[in-house]
Amino acid sequence: MLNIDDAMTDAKEQEIRATGGYKSDDEHILALANSSGARLLYSNDTDLHKDFKNPRILAGPRGSVYSTLESKSIDPITHRKLLQKTDLCRK
């Protein structure tokens, strides 16, 4: 289990709000991804998808999105490919 510092995440959230340029109302998720280094999002929120892939908001590496919007089922091949990616966490 990974513990993420609340103060660091809160500061990043405030930075994201101050900078602007995002489409979703999920600054807290973007801040947590920045703080934790997580780069895989499972969501059907298309505005959040855009923000998560935006290198000005989330970089080093950019985020990847896993969604069931196009296909309602979780495709085992896509699932396997995403989990085999080696760039889903900031180093």
Question: How would you describe the shape?
Answer: globular
User: Order of SSEs, N→C?
Assistant: HHEHEH
- Please tally the helical runs, counting DSSP H or I stretches of 4 or more residues: 4
Give the helix level as a range of percent. Answer: 40-55%
Instruction: Summarize the main sheet.
Output: 2 strands, parallel
Mean pLDDT level:
86
Features:
91 residues; mainly alpha; single chain; 4 helices; two-stranded parallel sheet; 2 strands
Task: Explain the overall architecture.
This protein is mainly alpha-helical. The protein contains 4 helices and 2 strands; from the N terminus they run H-H-E-H-E-H. Strands 1-2 form a two-stranded parallel ribbon. Strand 1, helix 3 (46-53) and strand 2 form a beta-alpha-beta unit. Helix 1 (6-19) crosses helix 2 (27-36). The longest helix has 14 residues, at 6-19. The model has no long low-confidence stretch (mean pLDDT 86).
Quick overview:
The protein has 91 residues and is mainly alpha-helical. It is built from four helices and two strands.
Topology:
Elements: H1 6-19, H2 27-36, E1 40-42, H3 46-53, E2 64-66, H4 76-84
Parallel strand pairs: 1-2
